[in-house]
Write a structure and sequence with these properties.
Blueprint lengths: L1 H11 L3 H15 L12 H16 L4 H14 L7 H19 L5 H24 L6 E10 L4 E8 L11 E4 L8 E3 L10 E7 L5 H9 L5 E4 L17 E6 L4 H10 L8 E7 L8 H10 L3 E7 L8 E2 L2 H6 L8 E5 L2 H13 L7 E3 L6
Parallel strand pairs: 7-8, 7-11, 8-9, 9-10, 11-12
Antiparallel strand pairs: 1-2, 1-6, 2-5, 3-4, 3-6
Helix pairs in contact: 1-6, 2-3, 2-5, 4-6, 5-6
Amino acid sequence: MARLVRDSFAAVEPKADEVARYFYGALFTIAPETRALFPITMTVQRDRLLRALVYIVQMVDRPDELITFLRQLGRDHRKFGVLERHYDAVGTALIAALKRFLKDRWTAEIEAAWTTAYGLIAKTMREAAAAETGPPWWAATVIEHRRITRDIALVRARTAEPLPYQAGGYVSVETPHRPRLWRYLSPATAPRNDGILTFHVRAVPGGWVSGAIVQRTRPGEVWRIGPAMGSLSVQPSARPRPLLMIGGGTGITPILSILDDLSRWKHNPRVHLFFGGRRPEDLYALGDLRKVAATAKWLTVTPVTETGAVPGGDRGSLATAVTQRGAWNTHDILVSGSPPMIRGTIARLLAAGTDLERISYDPFTLD
């Protein structure tokens, strides 16, 4: 089943945007009421669908990790008002879209594989949603908004009740400026008892939500925040393995959260962090990281820029800076950044001989 799902998806992936358009057209025809669950503009949503499908297909033969992700997704989808019958409509629309674009390559065996795979996906998500007792979303009042750089803003928001999440995780956020357009953000600090969440948001070119957050957010406005998700985390251990952390741009935020958590531990693993950006000014958190490293002897920070120099830093891509030092096979590895940065870095690590099982990353980072 895994092979048939992976091979058939690879065949339609070059036309992925057309597949997504057809899928949503079919879904809204089969279940017209689902259109109200989505934003007016579907561009972002189509991209999200494709990234979710790619991630699921990549994980189809790693069931433990896939099930964890699907359970998180099922709990998260409660915020949309998804009903039981909608899962069946989504499955019908997905099979119809794949069948249309595979054309003569569509076979009974492929249909059975996708039907079985989607059945397992839907079952896992439904069960997780049904078992969840927490709220589908939390109201959070913005208490601070300030520009860190021209295109990056720091936002602090407070929930009435602390939102449970683990350091390194991410949440979805809806702002009053972009109703029904949820954007994934990672808190930049470990969980706190006062309910305050800190986010670093870069205005992505063409990003409907990120641009509104950076340019228009003001203290006092109320956001909705969905349940926590994510696979980036570090758990206490009697004999912890050393850590390699690789963060690009505002992809550094889940790593900042983990470092904040690690700073409270009595016994820390050794951590080597590579923080990269295209220009020196993109390394907006470098000063704070160096202050932490000055007192935390377990932390080493290496800045990396593609153009321009940073004292004590490397020049080139993050992938080059990391892999020129070896395969890091004694380390657990966390990668966070834009989807192209994550793909490129992991590909280089694998080519250098790194064991895939040691690498952790999350697939959703941009508008």
